[in-house]
Structures are given as structure tokens and as C-alpha cells.
Specification:
10 helices; 12 strands; Esterase_phb; alpha/beta; 422 residues; Plant_Biomass_Hydrol_Est; signal; AB_hydrolase_fold
């Protein structure tokens, strides 16, 4: 049988047919280029898959927010809460109150995708600084200055009001935590806390929540990582308080915190996580620590269907203000804040009812120890919505009709001084 010679492709000459001679090295190089191109294509495909997954996460989060809001609108509760709106409508007349918008004409906030924004903030363009809000009057000899605090948990800007009566003495410090969409200037103007600091000579610190941490500048009270000691936002706020004490040689035993709405919830968290630092806290229209652990839970808690919080392991004197007409944060949350802060049973309890000079009826419940020192004080403001009681119309979220929550909080705070100094 005829045997064909062994074929060696490298020795074939196909030039007569217009085919170049086979070159093993050229073949290997071409194969390498093809493999590299295929690898780049694979990476591009993986990137496209990742972006598609990210878009699906965005769409799911937005859908989740929309469904939660639709549910709350379709099934309003007896108190008339129509959703988690925290942006209030401005007064229609001088001296009027800020009110929650109605469903027909009110503005709709966008979904608060704070966790996603925190993950992406390093990759996004920096937003321009927000307006500072209304001008804050600073009397001669006083100062209202901006600082920056930074540590492992992050950084926050804050402002400090130093009264004209400060001359290096160890003063009390009040940390004021603004609500959603607010900033230090707005909160200072609305609460008039600087005027009280000037009158009674104490320091006031106003930490600022940036939009990079929360789209609506809310403190992230509903995030599990921001409800613990030595981590998240509680660590930053506590660090600011300590920084003010150190810079101005303030009294470390006379440090207090107060806040409105999300800021009130943050103040309740400080009582639970830093009872050794804060001698007392004030919670206005806020929520208890642990009322929610995620965004859907926050919507439920604001509607009055949040988890029942347990009592704090260590008692921190607490004063609570909440309007029973609040359609933004259900009034039951004020009761839950009081329950969480409640000291041991057996204390004297006094209930009084009255009407502020501006016409707001209220019920005030005070629980005091044997010496008469108030440990828990709760004000239920009848007919008041989601607004700082007795505040100035120059700031947002205020009801000028009173009673004066700022003055009552300072009275309550300073009443703790003898016990802490003993």
C-alpha cells in the first residue's frame, strides 16, 4: 500500500495558492492576542453584569420605598399619620407653625438610600455646600464658630456657641442634634438655644449631618451600626462632645444632648450607648433606641408600629416632648422613649395640665427621686404636630405657640448637676 509521507505543516509552501507560509511563532502570537482580547471582553462582560446587578438593587430599593409609602397612605392610622414625610410646609403667616404636608399637595421626599450612598460617596462628585440657613444673631463678646471633628468612624462638621460670659470657667455643654433637612444655623435659630446659652452661660455644640451620610441630612437612627457604642454616628457625636469639653475646659460631668425628630432619636441612642458621658438627654418628636434596624423598619416605627424597645441598662435622666397631633412621627414613640428611659419603680409621680401663653394645651408627667430631682419628665403637647415647641419661626420645624421646650430642657438638665457633682 502506498504510504503518504509524514506531514510537517511548517514545511508546506502554499505561496502558489496565495497563502503565506505557516509561521508557528506568528500563530502563537495571534493566539495570545485573541486570548487577551477575549479576557478583556470577559472583564467588560463582568463589569456590565455588575452594573446590571447594581441597577436592580437600586430599582428594588426604590420599589421597596414606594410600596412602604403606598401602604402607609392607603392605611392611615387613627392618629392621622399619612407617611414618613419629614419635610414640613412653611407657615402661611408670621408666627405660624410648620406643618406636615397633605397628601394632595405636599412634597414627596425621595427614597433614603443612605447605605448605598455611603458605599458610593467616594466615587461620586462632591455636592456643593448647602446654604447655612437663617442668620444667627451673635451678641458682642460671644462667638459662633465652625469646627471639624475626625476619627476612625469618620468626620463631622459642627458649630459651637460660646457665650459672652465665658472666661475660661468650667461650663455645661449642650449638644443639639438637628432634624432632617436642617443644619446648625437653622436649628440654632429655630430653638433659640443660643439665646438661652447667653442668658444662663453654657456652651452649645451643633453637630451637622452631611448629605453624603444621608440624602435628607437625617441622623441614621434606624441603622444598626449607628446604634452602638464606639462606632458609627454615636461615636462621632460623643467625640464632638469630648472635643468641646477639652477645647473650652468645660465640666465633663455636665454634658447634655437634645434633638428633634431624627436628632431626637439620636439623642435617645446616646443615652443608651454613652450613659457615662451624657448627664441627661432631651428627645423632641423622636424615637427610642432600637425602634428600627433598617429603612422599612424606620417607616413602620414612624407610623407607630416599631419594635418595642427595652429599658436602658443604666438610667440617664430624660425629658420628652411630643405632639399628639404629630403626623410624621407617631405620638406613641414619645411614650416608648419615656418607657425606655424609665428609672426604677417607686419614684414619686406628679401630673399637671396647663396651657402655654400661646394657647397650646399640654400634660406634663414628672417622676422624681426622694430628693425631688426629676429623673423622667414627659410633655404631651395637645394638638401640636411635628415641630419644636416654643421655637422661633425664623427656623424650620417650629411651633411658636409653646410651651418653650428649649427653656424647659435646660431647666431639667441643670437640675441634674448636684447629683452628678456629689
Amino acid at each position: 500500500m502506498f504510504r503518504f509521507p509524514k506531514l510537517d505543516p511548517s514545511k508546506l509552501d502554499l505561496s502558489a495558492f496565495g497563502v503565506p507560509k505557516f509561521d508557528p511563532r506568528a500563530f502563537e502570537a495571534a493566539a495570545a492576542r485573541t486570548s487577551k482580547a477575549r479576557g478583556a471582553g470577559d472583564r467588560a462582560a463582568r463589569m456590565q453584569d455588575a452594573m446590571a446587578r447594581f441597577r436592580r438593587v437600586q430599582e428594588a430599593a426604590a420599589a421597596q420605598w414606594a410600596e412602604a409609602r403606598r401602604t402607609m397612605i392607603d392605611r392611615p392610622d387613627a392618629a392621622g399619620h399619612h407617611g414618613p414625610t419629614l419635610d414640613m410646609e412653611a407657615p402661611t403667616a408670621a408666627g405660624g407653625a410648620w406643618t406636615a404636608p397633605d397628601r394632595a399637595g405636599g412634597s414627596e421626599p425621595g427614597p433614603d438610600l443612605s447605605a448605598m450612598m455611603r458605599a458610593l460617596r467616594d466615587h461620586l462628585p462632591k455636592a456643593p455646600p448647602a446654604g447655612r440657613g437663617p442668620a444667627v444673631d451673635v451678641p458682642p463678646g460671644a462667638r459662633f464658630e465652625e469646627r471639624v471633628f475626625a476619627e476612625a468612624a469618620g468626620s463631622r462638621r459642627y458649630k459651637v456657641y460660646v457665650p459672652s460670659g465665658y472666661s475660661g470657667q468650667a461650663l455645661p455643654v449642650v449638644v443639639m442634634l438637628h432634624g432632617c433637612t436642617q443644619n446648625p444655623d437653622d436649628f440654632a435659630a429655630g430653638t433659640r438655644m443660643n439665646a438661652l446659652a447667653e442668658e444662663q452661660t453654657f456652651l452649645v455644640a451643633y453637630p451637622e449631618q452631611p448629605q453624603s451620610a444621608n440624602l435628607q441630612r437625617c441622623w441614621n437612627w434606624f441603622t444598626a451600626g449607628d446604634q452602638v457604642r464606639e462606632g458609627g454616628e454615636p461615636a462621632l457625636i460623643a467625640g464632638i462632645a469630648r472635643a468641646v469639653v477639652a477645647e473650652f475646659s468645660a465640666d465633663p460631668g455636665l454634658v447634655y444632648a437634645a434633638g428633634l425628630s431624627a436628632g431626637g432619636a439620636a439623642a435617645a441612642i446616646l443615652a443608651a450607648t454613652y450613659p457615662d458621658l451624657f448627664a441627661a438627654v432631651g428627645v423632641h418628636s423622636g424615637l427610642a433606641c432600637g425602634a428600627a434596624r433598617d429603612m422599612p423598619g424606620a417607616f413602620a416605627a414612624m407610623k407607630g408600629q416599631g419594635a418595642a424597645p427595652g429599658r436602658n441598662r443604666r438610667t440617664v435622666p430624660t425629658i420628652v416632648f411630643h405632639g399628639d397631633g404629630d403626623r410624621t412621627v407617631h405620638p406613641v414613640n414619645g411614650d416608648q422613649v419615656a418607657e425606655q428611659a424609665a428609672p426604677a419603680p417607686g419614684l414619686a409621680e406628679a401630673v399637671t395640665r396647663g396651657t402655654s401663653p400661646g394657647g397650646t394645651a399640654y400634660t406634663r408627667t414628672v417622676r422624681s427621686d426622694a430628693s425631688g430631682r426629676p429623673l423622667l419628665e414627659q410633655w404631651v403637647l395637645h394638638g401640636t404636630g411635628h415641630a419644636w415647641s416654643g421655637g422661633s419661626p425664623e427656623g424650620s420645624y417650629t411651633d411658636p405657640r409653646g410651651p418653650d421646650a428649649s427653656r424647659e430642657m435646660i431647666r431639667f438638665f441643670l437640675a441634674q448637676a448636684p447629683a452628678r457633682g456629689a
